[in-house]
Amino acid sequence: MNLGIRVWMGLTATAVAAWAQVSAGLHLAQDQFLPGESIPVSVRITNFSGQTLKLGRDNFWLQFLLEEKHGPSLASISNVPVAGEFDLDNAMIATKRLDLAPHYRSLRPGRYVLSSVLRIPDWGSFLELNPVEFDVFSGTVVWEQLFGVPNSIGTTGQPEFRRYALQQAFHLKQMKLYAAVTDPSGGRIHAVFPLGPMLTFSKPEKQIDRESNLHVLWQFGARSFYYCVIDPEGRLIARQTHDYAGGSRPVLATDGDGRILIRGGVRRRAINDLPEDQPLPAPDNQPSVPPVDPPTDVPSARPNTVRPGS
């Protein structure tokens, strides 16, 4: 166990009465992750102490301890950045959000326990938060391809090679499709994230374009398909929804200039489109299809929030 957290936990043995009016909870966005996937964590702090709390002055007011369920604690490769001063007024709630994954080496499959300690410097007091548990599990690789990262303009030399992979895994009794970008050996993970749900019999179509972007089309509903584009850095740069229409289904195709596009079916506007402001083509012969709510989305960074307590 981290020595600093050991000391803090020792100091909490005799808690001051003020802690009865200040509470904090540790929460995970989900309880199952693939190796290398983002691990979004939030700490929710409620203040009914009658005072304004000054938090976030340094990188030690909030610390984390990650352990294997039946094994040792894990050493972080970098400090989790929690600094950022803010005031939490009486009868208010603040939420600190962060991603643990970049600060630990890729976790192997297994059960993990995450603990945290909160410190209020002005009180000289510490609060141990209830730990949370989660699983890391392996998905099934359904396709992978080595590719060269395009050189920057004006540079020459041997290209850097990376690997795209598509994986499928069950989460909450639902099959999901994941995208991964790694080094050629798979040892260094640049990004892993869910693209969305998929039908168990769906066979994703995939193509790599001239900029080394990966285009993926797969079926997630009886008549519905998702189309996503991932760049060599592992960023999701486009996402669309397409449907069967007029007896034709959407398929990946290439135009005369070598650009990858969708032929057949009809595109449907959805609230999880990327880019959000991209206009839709509107031929007169295309049927109108209402928008739908998105399924599981790629985790995105959100700012800390403060709201009135209740």
Strand content: over 45%
CATH fold field value of the largest domain: Immunoglobulin-like
Oligomeric state of shown chains:
single chain
Characterize the largest beta sheet: strand count, sense, and whether it forms a barrel. 5 strands, antiparallel
Structural class: mainly beta
CATH architectural designation of the largest domain: Sandwich
Mean pLDDT: 84
* CATH top level label of the largest domain: Mainly Beta
Provide a count of the helices. Answer: 1
C-alpha geometry: elongated
Low-pLDDT ranges: 1-18, 282-303
Any idea what the radius of gyration is?
23 Å
3D architecture notes:
- The protein has 310 residues and is mainly beta.
- The chain has two domains: 3-136, Sandwich (Immunoglobulin-like), CATH 2.60.40; 140-268, no CATH class.
- It has one helix at residues 3-11, and strands at 22-28, 32-33, 40-47, 53-55, 62-68, 86-88, 92-99, 110-120, 125-136, 140-149, 160-171, 174-182, 189-197, 205-208, 214-219, 224-230, 236-243, 251-254, 260-263, 266-268, 305-308.
- The chain is elongated.
Give the SSE map.
Layout: H1 3-11, E1 22-28, E2 32-33, E3 40-47, E4 53-55, E5 62-68, E6 86-88, E7 92-99, E8 110-120, E9 125-136, E10 140-149, E11 160-171, E12 174-182, E13 189-197, E14 205-208, E15 214-219, E16 224-230, E17 236-243, E18 251-254, E19 260-263, E20 266-268, E21 305-308
Parallel strand pairs: 2-9
Antiparallel strand pairs: 1-3, 3-7, 4-6, 5-8, 7-21, 8-9, 10-11, 11-12, 12-13, 14-15, 15-16, 16-17, 17-20, 18-19
Features:
4-stranded antiparallel beta sheet; Immunoglobulin-like; disordered N terminus; single chain; 5-stranded antiparallel beta sheet; 310 residues; elongated; 2 domains
